[in-house]
Design goal:
The protein is an alpha+beta fold. Helices cover 33% and strands 35% of the residues. The protein has helices spanning 2-10, 56-64, 75-85, 112-115, 129-143, 150-166, 208-221, 237-246; strands at 21-28, 31-39, 43-47, 68-74, 92-104, 119-123, 169-174, 177-187, 191-198, 227-233, 249-263.
Length: 267
């Protein structure tokens, strides 16, 4: 989804702007059999049979000439790339296998609080910047292992502003108060990828996160989106149960590996 979403948003030209990246592909005749791309933010994304990875991701990285900050893709593929890049465990900031889930929106199980209107979801708006920035910092600290700093707050604030502009983030309200959030970290006309689901610790175990996801999916379903995917930590049992209650089913394994320091491929 990152590959498709970013390509549709920014095309194939790479000037280092948001969503742009340098792509490399292997071909079987005229058909693309594997793809890797290094994006503007340092994310190296792979989608290829493991036997095709050697040389593929290196081609994208060498052409982009930018450091890699994270590796993203199916679990087995990310491990192969980490081995080929000789990334040591000491160089990794955060690394956890993820369960990949899929849902046909026709099968979405809507929480009763959303169906009745007791809880309501809405798009992020300008007045939500402070609370959302605080929540995004909390998400980065807990879910991504980041360290609190002025730079982190600045980066999260910029991300909130982008989500607001792109109309890709929702807030769930209960009794008129914001209680949870859900976003799309990749989107295409027919498919969205859910990410950044966050409920403050003091408001958890009430079904708010599940409801926030449902509200966002109901909104885009009306615009023609017919399916959603997401991934969550293999040990995050509460999140897995919440997504499965919405109708998501486990279809594979995924992985995101964040580095402590950017890695620059050298010839």
């Amino acid at each position: 989804m990152f590959l498709v979403s970013n390509m549709r948003a920014a095309g194939l030209v790479d000037n280092g702007r948001r969503y742009q990246g340098t792509y490399a592909a292997r071909f079987a005749g005229e058909r693309i059999s594997g793809v890797s791309a290094l994006f503007w933010n340092g994310s190296l994304v792979t989608q290829a049979p493991v036997e095709q990875l050697d040389g593929l991701w290196q081609t994208a990285a060498a052409a982009a000439q930018r450091p890699i900050t994270r590796f993203i893709g199916p679990q087995e593929q990310v491990q192969v790339v980490l081995d080929q890049a000789r990334i040591s465990p000491a160089a990794i900031q955060w690394d956890e296998p993820e369960k990949l889930y899929s849902l046909d929106l026709a099968d979405l199980q809507v929480p009763p609080e959303i169906a009745s209107g007791e809880w309501q979801g809405r798009l992020l708006r300008a007045g939500d910047e402070e609370v959302m920035t605080r929540w995004r910092v909390g998400y980065a600290l807990e879910a991504l292992g980041e360290t609190e700093s002025p730079e982190l707050w600045q980066r999260m604030r910029a991300g909130v502003q982008n989500y607001t502009q792109q109309r890709q983030s929702w807030i769930l309200e209960a009794s008129g108060q914001p209680v949870s959030t859900s976003s799309f970290n990749a989107a295409a006309a027919e498919l969205v990828q859910v990410g950044g689901v966050w409920t403050p610790p003091e408001l958890r175990s009430r079904g708010y996160g599940r409801a926030a996801v449902a509200a966002s999916l109901l909104a885009v379903q009306k615009e023609g989106v017919h399916a959603a995917i997401l991934f969550t930590g293999i040990e995050n049992i509460p999140a897995q149960k919440a997504y499965e209650a919405l109708g998501f089913r486990h279809i594979g394994d995924y992985r995101i590996t964040l580095l402590k320091e950017p890695f620059l491929l050298r010839e």
